[in-house]
TrEMBL record:
Molecular function in Gene Ontology: histone H3K36 demethylase activity; metal ion binding
InterPro entries with a match to the protein in the record: Cupin_8 (IPR041667), JmjC_dom (IPR003347)
Record keywords, A-Z: Iron, Metal-binding, Nucleus, Oxidoreductase
Domain JmjC as annotated: residue spans: 268-410
SMART domains listed in its UniProt record: JmjC (SM00558)
Name of the protein in question: JmjC domain-containing protein
GO cellular component: nucleus
Localization per record: Nucleus
Cofactor entry: Fe(2+)
Main location (coarse class): nucleus
PROSITE patterns for this protein: JMJC
Keyword hit for Nucleus: yes
Amino acid sequence: DELLADFLSGCVDFPPADADVAPLVLYEFGRLMDRFASTELRPDEAENLAADCRSMQELAWHRLHTGHWKDVPVFWRRLYARLAFIVVWLGQQQRQAADSQVGDERLHELLAVCDRGLLLGHPLAQLAGLADRLHARLPAVPACPPCRCCPLAEATRDWPAASAGPARGRTVVRLTRPSLEEFGRLKEPVIVCGVMDHWPAMQRWDWRYLLDRWGHRTVPIEIGSRYTDDDWGQQLMPLSEFFSRFVAPRCAAAADSGPKACERLPCGYLAQHGLLDQLPDLASDTDVPDYCCLGDGEPDVNCWFGPPHTVSPCHQDPKPNLLCQVRGFKAVRLYPAEQSDRLYPVGGGHLLAGTSRIDVERPDLAEFPLFDGADELLALLGPGEALFIPAGWWHHVRSLSCSLSVSFWF
């Protein structure tokens, strides 16, 4: 099998000689690979090998959850993904040998192992390919109800005060395909038009397309209205469950009764997730904007898929951001980095450092009086538009409708 051959060839130089890990771990992984590469494995041997791989995966899982995520050596992520491939490959081979047909429940289990390997591990191409194969063998996701968002006319450019709070600032300027030189001179946010015209996503991306092709895939969902709330959390669930539990109900409520009724319903948000790494075929519907070449190295790419009236509290990021809107509308409030004192940021060293303590849509000026003098820019971002947010600029984002966005931090 070509997929298996690619996986085995990719493991020849793994782990690297300079891997900062105990020699015993390297030795044990090498033994596992030798057993997996054997031409024939009896059923009992395959079962024992899968159990040993799961044990080593558990060790890797604990290392992935020790300390801050960014400080975990990439070795453990790569190891976790490779072990997931072996476990899933053996699992489907065992079932096929025993039953000649893998049941749907078992396929779901194996697909979930693939996705956990891609989410916690490394975007291993062979593991992504294996996940695609498994998904193709599952029955189609039941037809989803129409996405009944409260529509906003394409021509509407006035600030939507009724759904996003009162406006107090000036509107962000729009530019159509500025040159790299012009873009490099920008000092404040602008909306860039024409950057995404060639993206297949502009014609393809809607919930029917996403659920048809990836509805059974496991994704991380933020549960709660704002990540600053005490009851905020995260859950892993199939994309189809995310749609049926959170997207469709809030879309219907927004269309029938307006924003307040929508916000009373439970909120789920696929936010700041590297979905394009997890689903390489979905990535082919997009393209990295040329402006990202002005950064250092490859950009960090994340997806933001959600129902109406998801909110990202006012915060700042250390890198420039190009927020590309594929479907729906977002209302964004922006404030210059040099006015941080007026935004009353959470103190340094805190998990929420870089986040404002103010609800900028409904500010309590008695508690936060300096905010009254803050310069504010307003952006209503629509389909096919990209909002450039310079590094350090504070921004608060509200989805005014069901929304599909891709951000590029460069």
